[in-house]
Amino acid sequence: MRAGKETLLVCATALGIAAMTIPPAGAATIPDFSGFWGRHAFNFEPLPTGPKPVRNIERLPDGTANRTLQAGDYTNPILRPGAAKAIKQLGEEARSGDPHDDPSNQCQAYAPPFAFSMQLGLQMLQGQDHITILYNQDDQVRRVRLNSAHPKQLTPTPMGDSVGHYEGDTLVIDTVGIAVGPKHIPMIDRYGTPRSSAMHVVERYRLIDGKAAKEAAERQMREDGPRFNAAVLVDPAYKGPGLQLTFTIEDPNVFTTPWSAVVTYRRMTVPWLEQICAEGLHDYYAGHAPFLPVADKPDF
Questions:
Q1: CA 198 from centroid of its chain's CA atoms
Q2: DSSP for 51-97?
Q3: Helix count (H) and strand count (E) of the chain?
Q4: How far apart are CA 110 and CA 280, in angstroms?
Q5: Which of 178, 184, 253, 299 could be 196's S-S partner, Cβ–Cβ 3.0 to 4.6 Å?
Q6: What does the pLDDT look like over 171-183, one tens digit per residue?
């Protein structure tokens, strides 16, 4: 029996296959970003030219970043004075053994672009009128409306308001309205670079040559320090394309100019394991646990 288009669409939905695999008649073919994507390095990858993102000024003897000590370069010319002062102060606190709160250790939303800095894995579920982006750490979820516009009266939310569209082989996502205030930690990276209510983020996702993706990933691993594969397992034998995110940030209250950076993902060997956020800042990796209660005598 021949299955009609409607039957195929229902079956695809039931199996969890993105509806975009069956585009309407006459519609242009859109890229397929399905599957699990991962990387072994944190932080943003700088572009070859143009303004650079804030980087870690704490380096190891081999010149790579000190992963256990996050101190951002507050002299970066993209920063306005107030932002530079905030990053400098947080770096000093980190050196004193008192690392700052961030959305990760305080169980908050990984609003873009903090998610691009911190998350090591993602899965993109592409529907006909929306996209859902799942991140591996702390069950973080983003929802993007396709071929839509931001509302004129926008209420800020922890993840902001995201709308998207396809430009040929590229998915473009535009995000505004990310909430700030006392209930939120308004930073865009692991160094505490701040953001304001005026921040505007544009993301561009596309598939790139597998060799180029491998080279970009290895270059970032050399910068970011020793290989980190506790959260995701990238398939070293995979020869297919990689997924590249290029994003641009505008925030005139924080930055002197718009600037762009890149994040490169490769295929994972297995789906990631579930991770649940345990609220509270516990500095276990530094060899001490200042907030861990200790009993005066055994309980049993």
A1: 19
A2: -----B--B-TTSSB-TT---B-TT-TTB-HHHHHHHHHHHHHHHTT
A3: 4, 10
A4: 16
A5: 253
A6: 999 999 999 988 8
Backbone phi, psi, residue 68, to 5°: -85, 0
**Between these two residues, 63 and 79, which has the higher pLDDT value?**
79
Burial 242-253 (b: 16+ CB within 10 A, else e): bbbbbbebebee
Q: What is the mean pLDDT of the chain?
A: 84
Average pLDDT rounded to a whole number, residues 56-74? 89
Q: How far apart are CA 177 and CA 159, in angstroms?
A: 8
Q: With 70 as the cut, is the pLDDT of residue 273 above it?
A: yes
HEC-encoded secondary structure of 2-47? CCCHHHHHHHHHHCCCCHHHCCCCCCCCCCCCCCEEECCCCCCEEC
Residue 200 pLDDT exceeds 90: yes
pLDDT at 18: 38
Is the whole model's pTM more than 0.85, yes or no?
Answer: no
Kindly state the greatest CA–CA separation across the chain: 74
Query: Are the C-beta atoms of 137 and 128 separated by less than 8 Å?
Result: no
Q: How far apart are CA 170 and CA 245, in angstroms?
A: 10
- Nearest-5° Cα angle at 255, 253 to 257: 120
Comparison of pLDDT for 44 and 21, the residue scoring more: 44
